[in-house]
């Protein structure tokens, strides 16, 4: 099970928001409110590579040398689901845990009608798929 640090999550957020793989320089440029030093980017990215959170998407010419570009190895929703599934209460009773999670999320946030319609559609599609 993959656990990302606060600094690694900040980098993941930048990568998730990007529409293409990013170089280290681009990650630094897009990390507006980071809790880590610029000089730590190499260590953080290597740790994220080892954990399987990011992957090398290619190489980009930077002056006289080439640098790696990085892309997320999983989507934000895949990571969130992975974290929920790792909870011991989820493992014991998936149905009950799922009800509690959805209830808490719906109670604690300002969910707009469009989001509710999307959720209802997902549930209808899931029910149809399971028949």
The CATH topology of the largest domain turns out to be Arc Repressor Mutant, subunit A
* Overall CATH architecture of the largest domain: Orthogonal Bundle
Distance between the termini: 31 Å
| Low-pLDDT runs | none
Indicate the mean pLDDT: 88
Gross geometry: elongated
Q: Domain count, please report it.
A: 2
| Proportion in helices | 55-70%
Structural class: alpha+beta
In total, how many beta strands?
3
The SSE string, one letter per element, is HEHHEEHHHH
Percentage beta strand: 5-15%
Strand order of the largest sheet: 1-3-2
Characterize the main sheet: 3 strands, antiparallel
Fourth-level CATH superfamily of the largest domain: Winged helix-like DNA-binding domain superfamily/Winged helix DNA-binding domain
């Amino acid at each position: 099970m993959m656990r990302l640090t606060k600094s690694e999550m900040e980098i993941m957020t930048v990568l998730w928001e990007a529409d293409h793989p990013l170089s280290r320089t681009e990650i630094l440029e897009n990390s507006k409110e980071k809790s880590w030093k610029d000089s730590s980017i190499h260590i953080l990215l290597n740790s994220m590579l080892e954990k399987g959170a990011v992957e090398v998407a290619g190489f980009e010419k930077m002056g006289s040398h080439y640098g790696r570009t990085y892309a997320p190895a999983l989507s934000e929703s895949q990571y969130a689901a992975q974290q929920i599934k790792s909870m011991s209460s989820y493992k014991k009773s998936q149905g009950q845990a799922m009800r509690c999670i959805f209830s808490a999320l719906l109670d604690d946030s300002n969910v707009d009608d469009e989001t509710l319609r999307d959720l209802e559609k997902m549930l209808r599609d899931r029910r149809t798929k399971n028949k």
